[in-house]
Amino acid sequence: MSKYLVTGGAGYIGSVVAARLLAAGHRVTVLDDLTTGVSEAVPEGADFVRGSVAQAATLLDPGYAGVLHFAASSQVAESVRDPEKYWRNNVAASLELIAAMRRADVRTLVFSSTAAVYGEPERVPITEDARTTPTSPYGATKLAVDHLITGEAVAHGLAAASLRYFNVAGAHAGHGERHDPETHLIPLVLQVARGRRPHVDVYGDDYPTRDGTCVRDYIHVADLAEAHLLALAAARTGEHLVCNLGNGEGFTVREVIDSVRRVTGRAIPALVRPRRPGDPAVLVASAALARERLGWRPRRTDLDAIIADAWSFAQEETP
Asked: In the chain, what are the helix, strand and coil shares in percent, each to the nearest 5?
């Protein structure tokens, strides 16, 4: 049994990872300021500290085996409007966290990064050697943290892994998406199914894809959590391992909407809108390196099953 600090552990992904760590027999401390997370998402059995990432300096000691870092601001559009917030919350806070880990002699870090660091890809599926040209301050700040981690690994022997991925979906053990505002496609379509929205917007139906709508990668949140636990075990002193995570194929916007119709049995009105500037036709990440280095393979790849889990969670939420 080991002890881990999970920053952002009251959020969607962090709470599932915290739950999986507890299920594996570990002790977990969740650090979250609840700006976007909710206290109800903190899994039973975890110690909860409400506070910013800076407070890690008062929590960490050599008894911690590592840190899993999820706390971040993550809205692309907001990052364009308010870049300072993203450089402060994502980069400056991560710099403080890494320094606190060094002082406390906690030498293992798994960072929840993003495939947004690649910007508009030159080829798909996207591999780790693709050019990193983020198109938003959100992606740029996540890339900056990756550079921070690399420097710490080289200079001070940190054992680290960054996991980059696009869209996470589904639910696990009572933990699901609770974003406000909601910007992710699957929960938006499920809001239509619940009568909370009149329709879903489809931005462009003339892309060079199998049905004219954009193709996006979706990973079940439980598979993503498993990757983070495997990354803890794979981290090596003085190395910063960067792995992309994806299902290898992706689904179109229309396929997602049709799946929600099948799973819920509800009508889902869809309105086609003009393309949004900068939306690539296909965003799919290659998980070949994750298979090689982590032994990770996504097991929950059926779209209907992913949406069924998300739908079960959505129905438990307050109307």
From this structure: 40, 20, 40
Taking the CA atoms of residue 134, residue 295, residue 186 and residue 43 in that order, the dihedral angle to the nearest 10 degrees is -100
Task: Using pLDDT thresholds of 50, 70 and 90, give the confidence band for residue 89.
Answer: very high
Question: Token pair 């059926």 is at which residue?
Answer: 302
**For residue 82, pLDDT beyond 70:** yes
Half-sphere exposure of 280 (CA within 13 A, CB side): 18
> Other CB atoms closer than 10 Å to residue 116's CB: what's the count?
23
The residues that are catalytic are 138
- Residue 64: how many CB atoms within 10 A of its CB? 21
| Token pair belonging to 121 | 């890809």
Q: Is the peptide bond before 137 cis (omega within 30 degrees of 0)?
A: no
Alpha helices by DSSP H, listed for the chain, are 12-23, 56-59, 76-81, 83-86, 93-104, 137-156, 185-193, 221-234, 253-264, 288-294, 303-316
Is pLDDT at 236 greater than 70 in this prediction? yes
Q: Tell me the pLDDT of the chain averaged across its residues.
A: 95
Provide DSSP, 124-156.
SSB-TTS----SSHHHHHHHHHHHHHHHHHHHH
Classify the phi-psi angles of 248: left when phi > 0, otherwise alpha if psi is within -120 to 50, otherwise beta: left
Token digits for 44? 């039973």
